[in-house]
């Protein structure tokens, strides 16, 4: 009886974890460059005192869905969308290099180029700082940033930096707790000259809201089933206790 109850209890607990993943995906359905997390369940043996006769369910995330999201045209010169495979390099809060597909860029009062999460965008020589004041900015397909200083004539365009674009392979990437991706093996990915961006556009989230809603409903039904199994285990245990008293 305790085995029955243990399986039902662990199944309900892991169902809540799976629900949290789907809820997070759904909450980021409109987040630029967001990659949906995936979940899978498997049975695990519980080791402890005595024989390993207990089995419990465990929800784990095998990775993220790296499919490209829709390209949304914005018309902003500082918006870029990575075409095909590849990543933009940004600086994480701890100063390390991380990677994202969110390409809605801007610069602050000091000229520091940042993304929508205020993470500094990395260039070949570190964080990119634009020379202020600037009248016009444009980003080429290869990530080169060109500016026209304020007051300069229309034909004056100066290359000031190049966005670091990498493509280490999606199977080498993992998402961190801050939502940014990093190399599983650690370190920094090298610049890949074959990665291209589209200016004046951003990549939307690859989350399918309908799929996530259906998944949440299915998980909730599974949770209810596990709770019913726990109640059934309680009823069977009560009935067994009554029989022991009669005997």
Give a short synopsis of this structure.
Residues 81-147 form the Flagellar hook protein FlgE/F/G-like D1 domain. The chain has two helices and 18 strands.
Major β-sheet annotation:
3 strands, antiparallel
- Principal-axes geometry comes out as elongated
Rg to the nearest angstrom? 25 Å
Percentage of residues in DSSP E strands: 25-35%
List how many beta strands DSSP finds. Answer: 18
Percent helix, as a range, is 25-40%
SSE topology sketch:
Layout: H1 2-27, E1 37-46, E2 54-64, E3 71-73, E4 80-83, E5 87-91, E6 97-100, E7 106-107, E8 113-114, E9 122-123, E10 126-127, E11 134-139, E12 144-149, E13 158-162, E14 165-166, E15 173-175, E16 181-183, E17 196-199, E18 201-203, H2 209-246
Antiparallel strand pairs: 1-2, 3-18, 4-17, 5-6, 5-14, 7-8, 9-10, 11-12, 12-13, 15-16
Domain Flagellar basal body rod protein N-terminal: 5-35
Family: Belongs to the flagella basal body rod proteins family.
Subcellular location: Bacterial flagellum basal body
Description:
It comes from Shewanella ulleungensis. Residues 199-243 form the Flagellar basal-body/hook protein C-terminal domain. Belongs to the flagella basal body rod proteins family. This protein is an alpha+beta fold and 247 residues long. Helices cover 26% and strands 31% of the residues. It has two helices and 18 strands. The protein has helices spanning 2-27, 209-246, and strands at 37-46, 54-64, 71-73, 80-83, 87-91, 97-100, 106-107, 113-114, 122-123, 126-127, 134-139, 144-149, 158-162, 165-166, 173-175, 181-183, 196-199, 201-203. It has a three-stranded antiparallel sheet with strand order 6-5-14, with no helix packed on it. Strands 11-12-13 form a three-stranded antiparallel sheet, with no helix packed on it. Strand 9 and strand 10 (126-127) form a beta hairpin. Helix 1 packs antiparallel against helix 2. The longest helix is centred in the last third of the chain and has 38 residues, at 209-246. The radius of gyration is 25 Å and the shape is elongated. 26% of the residues are buried. The model has no long low-confidence stretch (mean pLDDT 87).
